[in-house]
Structures are given as C-alpha cells and as structure tokens.
Amino acid sequence: MTRLRHYQQIHHTLKQEIQQGVYPTGSLLPSENELCATFQTTRMTVRQALNELVRDGFIERRHGKGSLVTSTRPSLGLLSFRGFSDVVGNTSHQVRTTFLNPPAPADWPAPFVYPLSADEQQAGCIAINRLRYADDVPVMLEHTFVPIQNATASLLTEPFLDGSLFRTLSVRHQIDIRNLEQSLRAVAARPEQATIFGCRRNTPLLYIERRYLTSLPDFYVYSLLYCHTEQYAISNIL
Amino acid sequence: MTRLRHYQQIHHTLKQEIQQGVYPTGSLLPSENELCATFQTTRMTVRQALNELVRDGFIERRHGKGSLVTSTRPSLGLLSFRGFSDVVGNTSHQVRTTFLNPPAPADWPAPFVYPLSADEQQAGCIAINRLRYADDVPVMLEHTFVPIQNATASLLTEPFLDGSLFRTLSVRHQIDIRNLEQSLRAVAARPEQATIFGCRRNTPLLYIERRYLTSLPDFYVYSLLYCHTEQYAISNIL
DNA sequence: AAGTGGTCTAGACCACGCC
DNA sequence: GCGTGGTCTAGACCACTTT
C-alpha cells in the first residue's frame, strides 16, 4: 500500500466533513488560503484536493466567491452514475424505496450476466431486491448483488444509511463508486413484473445491466434494473 | 470575449494535432518537458492542458512512460453495440451508417421534445436521419436536429468528415460536444419502425432523447434515437 | 542510469464577486 | 478595496518505466 498523498488526505478529510454535515449543502468550504494554513501546505496541493471534490460532484468552484457545497453524497458528475433519487425526471418527484425482502446472503444467479472472479464466485453475494417509487408509482425494480467481503458483511445486520447502499458503503466502509459500465435493452414485461408495476403483460420495459467500479481494486457491485417508463422516463444515466 | 488562457491554447493545439493525425492512436505525445520548451512555459501550465485532454478522452497518462493517445475523437456520449455473444464487450462489431435522406433544412417538429429558444425556433434546423447497422443488422434509427447558424449551414453542402457529424463540427467548426442530457424510455415499435428493423410490431425498442451541450454557448444539438435491442444491447461509452 | 509523469513548495499577478 | 479562486513561474524531490 503506497503512502497516502497529502492532497488525498485533504480530499478525504473534506469529503468526510461534507458527508457528516460539517459543511451542509449550500455552504462554502474554507477558502484556499485558510485550507493552506489548516493543512500546512500550499495552494497547489489544496487545489488538487478541491478539484477531486469537484470531480466527485460534491462542490462547485465559484470564482471570486468560494467552494460551494452542492451535494452531501457522491455523484461523479459527467463520467458517473447517478443514484436513483437523481435519476427520475425533475427532483420535484417524491422518491421512495422499499425492500422486497431484507438483504440476504445468496448464491450468484447462474448464469450471471457478468463474468465473476474465482474469489467472487466462492465468497457468494448479498442479494438486495428493491422497488423504487416516484410519486408513489412503482417505476424501477432493482436487483443488486454485492460480493461478500469483510467490509460488506455488516450490510446484512445494519440498516442502510438513509436507505442508500452506496452512501453506506462510502461513509461506513470508505468504498466509493468510481465509474460504471452499463448495457441497455428494451424488453417485454414478464407476468410477475407486470403485476409489480401494474401494467399489461409485454409492456416495454427498460432493462439495464450495470457493473459499478469502486475505489477498492477488484471489488464490483452489480445491478439489474427493470424500469417502467410509461409515466416516468429515466434521465441522465451517464 | 476573454483572452484565451495559455493552457487553453496548448490544449487546443494538441487537440487539433491529435485529430489531424499528427499523433495517432497508440502514440505518445511529447514529454512534459519538451512541451514546456515548445510552448515556452512551465510544467504546471502544460499539465493543465494535458489534464484537459484526459478529461476529453483523447489521452491517458502513464507514469514513467508518457501521454498515450487513446482516441483521435472525443468519445463523449457515443453509443456502442454489444452482441449477446460478447462476453466482456471487448468484441468490436462492424458498424455502418446510412443516410435515409441527405441532410436538409427543415422546420422543427411540433411539438418538439425540448424547449427551443426564440433564436432556434426562428432559424429552423437541419434534419439528419440516419440508420446505423452493427454487423449489417439495422440496430439504431437516429433523428438528429442541428439549429441553422453561420457555422452549421455548410453541413448541407459538404459531406461529413468520416461520416461523423460531431467530428465534422469539431474539426471544421471548432464546436465540441461538452456534455449531454438524455432521457430514456422503452416503447413499442410502430409499424414503420418494425419494417425498418425487420421485427414484429410492438417489439420493445429503446428510445432515447438527447440534448448535446457544446462549447458554443446556447448552441445545442438534439437527437432522438430508436434502438432495436433484441440482438445487440446498447452500451454507453463513458 | 536516464527519462517520464506525480507531487509539492513559495511565491506572483490577474479576474471576479461583494461591500 | 478586499478576499476569492484562476493562472502562471521556477524551481525541487519522488515514483515509475525502460534501457
């Protein structure tokens, strides 16, 4: 393990403080010069840490003003995934998530859509089945598979932070989502899916296979998503 | 118009040279120190230009080696096709594009899916209707609308560079795609679409509405995409 | 060993926002 | 006018890759 660079230390500290509410959404971080004094370094180093926070989607920089906190949860901006609460249309929609069953250890589905490493295969996974609502209309059925590791085992016993898997992984386990690969298709609703969404059989559904890449090498999270898009489109999935 | 910063000048020069083939895919850019000498500046400034090229997706930086050219065109928002037989999506498919009719001036469809400015509304648009094939199977019907401006009028008379609209805009008119907003749905194939794709009516299609944001303020490009995903899934290139 | 990019210092001046 | 972030200089040492 290579030594943590100074700017990474600063980035990590500020990220945690943002996530813990020290700097709420809409507030300003300390100025670059203040941060230089705090962390005993120069602007160049502080700026590198702040640029990382921009890339993460936590802050925006305002010339002549300061670093504005725009979000207290990770969203990686352009080359990024967006959590469901950001995905559906305008943020004015009320979003709710239910668990179809509690997160439970399971075998990997066979065959699985993504190739699995021997370690993943052997360790098994935690299966998380959730149904997302927009304005109390069921719109997304999400099957998530998290490989079982030391860090992830506690997902089985402790409730998710704010009901969010990724927020829990980030805050409690320092595992951040860095990127995703996804594959998109349109499919016809199977009977059980039609029942869940309250639509006719064979209604077109948006089907998305996702592999999330994380800050932990060789640790991936997998999701299969079925979206009922007759009333709500899915936006900004990049 | 504010003066072009030095690092922007360097970024622009290198980008053009990459696009023009001076540095082909797989080659290395001059080292930071060489670029410092060439552009009469310091590493800090050169590095900022190189970081922009990384963000654009043109190069990757290799510690101890150099700046590797990974692409001669910006990949933002492009879609790739992934056959069901592909294990990891590494398999590349032969992709071909045909024009259903030549690019022609047109009125905006009414109603249009995105709100238009008064300028856009009045200027009208160039309508481009293309059909994309993967391995000679028709997989994507793309309706693109480009507002008519001084810069874009020549799209009507000159053929596209490499058949690519975005490459033409970038190389010939210095208009780069910076970002996109998109909205996704699954819809049932209409009869004329079923004919084009050679599928049954009501086959589920992936429908994508896109607004591309460009380096030109208030200049957007719009696309409506219909994708037949029974044989080929759509992957986002991030 | 030599060359590359990665990190970092200690300054400087400029452009923007606010009072 | 003052503080902010944006740009830039001229160095330094470190870590990685190749020879």
Automatic annotation (TrEMBL), chains A, B:
Annotated transmembrane regions: none
Record carries keyword Cell cycle: no
Record keywords, A-Z: DNA-binding, Transcription, Transcription regulation
SUPFAM superfamilies named in the record: Chorismate lyase-like, Winged helix' DNA-binding domain
SMART domains in the record: HTH_GNTR, UTRA
Domain of life: Bacteria
Single Gene Ontology MF annotation: DNA binding
One annotated GO biological process: negative regulation of DNA-templated transcription
Residue ranges of domain HTH gntR-type in the record: 4-72
Keyword Nucleotide-binding recorded: no
PROSITE patterns per UniProt: HTH_GNTR
Protein name stated in the entry: GntR family transcriptional regulator
The species this protein was found in: Fibrisoma montanum
Top-level taxonomy: Bacteria, Pseudomonadati, Bacteroidota, Cytophagia, Cytophagales
